[in-house]
Specification:
The protein contains no helices and nine strands. The chain is mainly β. This is Pyrimidine/purine nucleoside phosphorylase.
């Protein structure tokens, strides 16, 4: 899906790591949420409250998921899931455009 219809977009950006990671929150009619964002090259650790699916629209990164010792390469067109109440790390290799869906 290349676009979302009938959503509410929060005006204020979510800004992390001194602006190296930014996103905007979309809220759908059913109450579900997604964020659309950009990550600059660098290494970042994130914490989750809800389970998430990170869809990489373009760019390239390595991800270290909870409980994993190694890193996994993710490229544009691929995604990965992160469990609720966990931490994961990414090493962004090139400017990365992403969509994060909060899972039920």
């Amino acid at each position: 899906m290349s676009e979302f219809n009938n959503v509410t977009v929060a005006k204020a950006a979510n800004i992390y790591f001194d602006g190296q990671v930014t996103s905007r929150t979309l809220t759908f009619a059913d109450g579900s949420r997604k964020t659309l964002g950009i990550m600059q090259p660098g290494t970042f650790e994130f914490g989750t409250q809800a389970a998430e699916r990170m869809e990489i629209l373009s760019g390239e990164l390595d991800v270290q998921l909870p409980g994993e010792d190694g890193w996994q390469r993710i490229r544009g067109g691929e995604s990965f899931d992160v469990p609720a109440d966990s931490k994961f790390s990414v090493c962004v290799l090139s400017l990365t455009d992403y969509c994060c869906s909060f899972l039920p």
